[in-house]
Amino acid sequence: MLKQVLAGIGAGALLFGLTACGGGDDGDGGGGSDEGLVIGFAQVGAESAWRTANSASVQAAAEAAGHELKFVDAQQEQEKQISAVRDFITQQVDAIVLAPVVETGWTDVLQEAEDAGIPVILADRGVEAADEDLYVTRLGSDFAEEGRKAGAWAAETFADDADGTRILELQGTTGSAPANDRKAGFFEVLDAEGLDYEIVDSQSGNFTAEEGKAVMETFITTHTLDGIDLLYAHNDEMGLGAIQAIEEAGKVPGVDIQIIIVDGSKAGFQAGVDGKLNYIVECNPAFGDQLMDVVESVVNGDEVEKFTPVEEGAFDASQFEAELPNREF
Amino acid sequence: MTSASTPAKARGGANPYLKRLMWPLAVLVALIVVNIAVTGFDFIVPSVNDDRLGGAFVNILRRSAPLLLVSLGMTLVIATKGIDLSVGAVYAIGAAIACQMIIDAENQSAPGLIFAAVALALVVTGVIGAWNGTMVAYFGIQPIVATLILMIAGRGIAQLVTGGQIPKVQDSSPFTELGRGAILTVPVPIVIAALVLLLLALLTRRTALGMLLESVGGNPEASRLAGIRSKGITVLVYLVCGLCAGLAGLIGAANLGSADANNGGLWIELDAILAVVIGGTALLGGRFFLLGTTIGVVIIGTLEDTIINVGLSSQWQFTAKAIVVFVVALLQSPEFRAWILKPFKRKPETPAPAPAEEVLAK
């Protein structure tokens, strides 16, 4: 019995392999030389709605462009990503797209890809600077730019605030690149614009609604909301948690205190439409089409920049309602 | 163990028990004093807004309710010389099941639906707990291994339930009352946690169950030979732990109106173990202190607020926690106290209490 099952699984796997190869051949045969690339994509995992939307976007864009995408979900483990990249090298794909789980430990496998002559493109996250020569380009969000967009809106909105702008900040996970850069970019612009501001408090909410709400409750009991002008939350989960805390304290979010969030999920925009927050800076997971463009130019041997920022927008209250239906996560 | 502890109990009455609680309580009072010094008496005095008690300390208690539930279950498990690492994942599963079931329905406010969602979540988490207990008691798998499996796989199960998304329940659904509501102005999470504490305390202190638990933790084989059905008790204890974690997940999810399979109750198992240890229950099994665990939970909750109130940056969070736990652990060690007090020691006093303490520590 066991033997039969094993044989069945083996045969199934073989068959699956055959069809996969067959599909690849068809693509090459039918599409000419620069059409129908075979792209290996080693994704981080499916740890958040943002990530799920990101995977879906890349898969859809590859199909639309007529490329074959070999998609591997690494379940947030570097080991799995490394073996996925090795598989891609063995399969002689045209290009490898990697969204590295962590920044370090990539030298060997990236070197192997280079030796095999396969270009590597990083998506979303980066690797340590020492390995910079081993990939062609990185396509990802410019977190500092996101912070600057939030800062520009704040500087403009509170330019006439005579008694100084009092700010609460909910940071992302301590030490993470998005938290560091979103903070730095934000205050860089406030300083540059010469806004008279005071950081009343700034704590980590760890990018989760749970901690965002808990920290906001403590902010409220410690500082009260009287005289607080602005809450800057590094992502929308924390912002949405904070909005609940503000409501439960009997205040009106978006009116008694203005709120900026970064990310722009459906839930975030819905809160915006409900008037509970004032400004949304987008962190865009739907960069599939842009990624395909980059991959195509890399394979064609065009010169590309070392870093390609993802196209991202920012939305104020007048745009929330129109933008809500376009949200993909 | 049982024979050793009985005379100690008889001799000291409630005294050794209170002595156990003294040091954690002292640390908690110190933390509260620090907060009052920084933010004034508003910290401890409750205020009423929207017919619900508020104020910094009441908020701390309300937010600590899920951790308290998990920690109470953990205390019982640890009393049997076990450990349950899966509580964080079970928390996420309980939250995911209830929220997903509610958002799948057309009318999210139907009382029957809320009741069914809560019941289903509790049944599933109870079964998961019982499964953990069965693996430990009947298959002889070490508790840390048996529960590690679900600690790792459990969040995957929660993700399957939610389809990788974060289900958001409408704010109007009565389900959210479980986390945000109030009964006679007392926040519902506090009421639930207090009831569970009372129930477990009565069950373990007013019936023989507590003694049986301590006996199983002290020496399972001897307990079996003495006629205690230790396997059944072990399964029961893990089941209760799973239920507590599921209930904590429901409260957490109701508070936010959503269930995050990845982050809901993340690392709560470690905080729970910490609270149990701060409360004076030894990881070696045997004697356990539900009230001590409660104090441990409040210490952890207060500590997080203290860091913000004192104005320390986020980077300090873990370090400050470590320092406080360190202090509590040292204060609880009779050896450390003896060593510190040595220069001040008056001759007749110390030898007498020391042996009693040591018996307790084992």
From TrEMBL, chain A:
It is found in: Cell envelope. Keywords: Signal, Sugar transport, Transport. GO terms for cellular component: cell envelope. Residues 39-302 form the Periplasmic binding protein domain. The keyword Transport applies. PROSITE patterns: PROKAR_LIPOPROTEIN. One of its GO terms (molecular function) is carbohydrate binding. This is Simple sugar transport system substrate-binding protein. It comes from Glycomyces harbinensis.
From TrEMBL, chain B:
It is a multi-pass membrane protein. The keyword Transmembrane helix applies. Its main location: membrane. It is found in: Cell membrane. It holds the Pfam family BPD_transp_2. The chain crosses the membrane at residues 21-40, 60-78, 85-103, 109-131, 138-161, 181-203, 233-254, 266-284. Coiled coil: none annotated. GO terms for cellular component: plasma membrane. This is Simple sugar transport system permease protein. It comes from the Bacteria. One of its GO terms (molecular function) is transmembrane transporter activity. InterPro entries: ABC_transp_permease. Keywords: Cell membrane, Membrane, Sugar transport, Transmembrane, Transmembrane helix, Transport. It comes from Glycomyces harbinensis. The keyword Membrane applies.
